[in-house]
């Protein structure tokens, strides 16, 4: 897994200003890798979704929001994207919002997750 705090990437994404709409930041970060997970390091559901992808041979980019000074802003933006409720974990594949743990697991069980990962270039087999 590739872990990155948003604060490191904000200097390159925003030219070092750190300003900008949290929703725009989410969209930019989510499109930066084939699989992006917004997570909180102490969340058991976040851990489970990260293990799911790693177990499939996928190397997601993980943004640990509790280790980021602007993580709460991003978490609120994610919650708005999901229509309220818990905001983590949130998974993007190929820059597209997949959703929270329930949507990821439903996709995995129905057999649609692997084709999404292949299409995004995150999985080759």
TrEMBL record:
UniProt keyword terms in alphabetical order: Cytoplasm, Redox-active center
Region Disordered, residue ranges: 1-20
Domain of life according to the entry: Eukaryota
Classification via SUPFAM superfamilies: Thioredoxin-like
Pfam families linked: Glutaredoxin
Biased composition (Low complexity): 1-14
Ranges for domain Glutaredoxin: 35-98
Keyword flag Cytoplasm: yes
PROSITE patterns with a match to the protein in the record: GLUTAREDOXIN_2 (PS51354)
Keyword Cytoplasm assigned: yes
Subcellular locations according to the entry: Cytoplasm
A Gene Ontology term for the protein's cellular component: cytoplasm
Homology family: Belongs to the glutaredoxin family. CC-type subfamily.
NCBIfam families: GlrX-like_plant (TIGR02189)
Annotated protein name in UniProt: Glutaredoxin-C5-like
């Amino acid at each position: 897994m590739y872990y990155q705090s948003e604060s490191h990437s904000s200097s390159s994404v925003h030219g070092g200003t750190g300003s900008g709409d949290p929703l725009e930041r989410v969209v930019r970060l989510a499109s930066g890798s084939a699989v992006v997970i917004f997570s909180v390091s102490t969340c058991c559901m976040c851990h489970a979704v990260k293990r799911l992808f790693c177990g499939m041979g996928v190397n997601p980019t993980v943004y640990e929001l509790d280790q980021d000074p602007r993580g709460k802003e991003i978490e609120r933006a994610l919650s708005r994207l999901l229509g309220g409720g818990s905001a983590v974990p949130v998974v993007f594949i190929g820059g597209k919002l997949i959703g929270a743990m329930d949507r990821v697991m439903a996709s995995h069980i129905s057999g649609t997750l692997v084709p999404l990962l292949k299409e995004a270039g995150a999985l080759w087999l």
